[in-house]
Amino acid sequence: MTSIASGTVPTTRSTVCFGKIPKSATFLSMLHRASSSSSSSPRMLLLLSSSSSSAKSAKILNSNNGSSISSSPKPFRPVMQWQDVTRVKMVVDAPASVAYKLYADREMFPKWMPFLSSVEAKEGSPDLSRYLVKLESFGQNIEYHFLAKNLQPIPDRKIHWRSIEGFENRGSVRFFPRGPSSCLVEISFSYEVPNAFAPVAFAMKPFMEKLIRGGLQRFATFVKTI
Question: Which InterPro entries does the record match to this protein (predicted)?
Fold first, then answer.
């Protein structure tokens, strides 16, 4: 791989170092090429300040007359707003009670979610689970972990969680009976995009949906072996 990023994803409560982070130069170049291809409007070049100051401003330079317009400074944000992954649904050949029992055992997740290297219940606190994630995305090998609290479940109907340390996320898995031997499994997932991945934030949602859908498809296959 071209580079490796390793560590806990930065949040407002944690400090982290990544080995190498995707730069926004490519994205800005795309904007420049797109704007320069139009003959009906002056070419616009977006300049982003690379200063580490908490107040960053952007300038738009009109290449025709050299004039510039400065936007109002905005405070630096360590993370972006919450993004919701569209609910992923699939009918599986197993009763809702069986599917629920498998998902309720968090340590089983890696069997159908290969991007989860491990999930371990915290000793002495069964409602807490530590997740280790390893995956390749956007030209990077990414590894990070987070601690999640398992919220009050509804037996045979719903499990849900929220992170309390590390990568900010929350989600749920619901189970809807479709007869005596099948059920509909629905996964919802929300997360905050770390500032380090802001340049590719537009690509993260379909990427996360693909990961979750792939995991659910593997679960549908796995449950047939039970």
Answer: COQ10_START (IPR005031), ORF3 (IPR047137), START-like_dom_sf (IPR023393)
What are 71-80's pLDDT values in tens digits? 444 444 444 5
All domains of the chain in start order, with CATH: 3-75 (no CATH), 79-225 (3.30.530.20)
Q: SS in 3 state form for 5-19?
A: EECCCCECCECCCCC
User: Rounded to a whole number, what is the largest CA-CA distance in the chain?
Assistant: 72
Q: Are the CB atoms for 173 and 185 separated by under 8 Å? A: yes
| Cβ neighbour number for residue 183 with a 10 Å cutoff | 25
Number of alpha carbons in the 13 Å side-chain half-sphere of residue 178:
14
Are the CB atoms for 186 and 86 separated by under 8 Å?
A: no
Alpha-carbon distance 31 to 45, whole Å? 8
Which tens digit of pLDDT belongs to each residue from 167-216? 899 999 999 999 999 999 999 999 888 776 777 778 888 888 999 999 99
pLDDT of residue 210: 92
H-helix or E-strand spanning residue 194: strand 183-194
Please report the pLDDT score of residue 96 as a whole number.
98
* Residue 81: predicted pLDDT: 67
- Residue found under tokens 């898995």: 173
Q: How many CB atoms lie within 10 A of CB 55?
A: 11
Tokens, residue 50 = 């690379």
